[in-house]
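QA checklist item 7 of 12: single-chain prediction sanity check.
[x] sequence parsed
[x] length recorded as 310
[x] structure emitted
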Amino acid sequence: MIKFIIKRLLIAIPTLFTIVLIVFLLVRAVPGNPFQGEKALSPEVMKQLLHTYNLDLPLWQQFLLYLRDLLHGNLGQSYKFIGQSINSLLFPDYMGGFWVTLRLAAYSMFITVPLGIVLGCYAGVYRNTWLDKVIVIFNIVFSAIPTIVTGPLLVLIFAVNLNLLPASGWGDGGVRNLFLPITALVLAYVPTVAVVTRGSIIDVLNSNFIKTAKAKGLSTPIIIFRHAIRPTLIPVVALLGTMFAGVLVGAIVTEQVFALPGLGVLTTNAAMNRDYNLVLGITIFSSFLTIMFNMLVDVIYFFLDPKIRQ
């Protein structure tokens, strides 16, 4: 087990380094610099600003300096929010930044995964019935509609027409404010889990060991929960790593739709203002979370699949 985790860590470190290098080069390939705006600065002021933030150094020196700070947990200073570090912008003392995005993504995953598994299992066990067809149609419809469309539709129905929920804003972070954005995310990702679960349980139910269990006269619930559910979950667990990354990105988009003070606002500001360090900070931390979550999935997969342990 320890050897398995060490191998995953040895793969994760160069992966994260490659991501840092690529994003670092890409953000600096954009023409101009963070201090060029509508109001032109004098050459002396521009030169001083570039020198203060080490932007007048060769690219390789800038990268080494950034890598040095990164190894000490320092994501650098913002070029847009003067005097503020990227760490304080991403992880503020109040409820904002990453804490909002994490809350949205976590709540969405906690609902999406169990709901998708239940829907997929029902569709697979009772395939070709009206229930299966309804679930399949639901999956097709909401797989095709992006969050940026379902979000405004939910606002139109529940906030404008029915006047049941607030249209946007964080408020006190309660259920009323989070219901619509979480619903938009759940509708976007439940179909993926349901489709994978449905296909997996159909394959498992056609396996020889399930046929043997049926021949012994075991009831359907016992067959499902004692024999079929564990192998059914193996491809679902393998999906969770990439889906977490998708939910994080989806949460950022959803925050824009519902005007929530999470990473979505910071990402937009960073991109529009060429705030290199903020773009790097958001990308690196999101990539780090994705890699760590994939490692966690690998560990769970290790326990679920005997072939991995062998």
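[x] summary fact logged: The radius of gyration is 24 Å.
[ ] second reviewer sign-off
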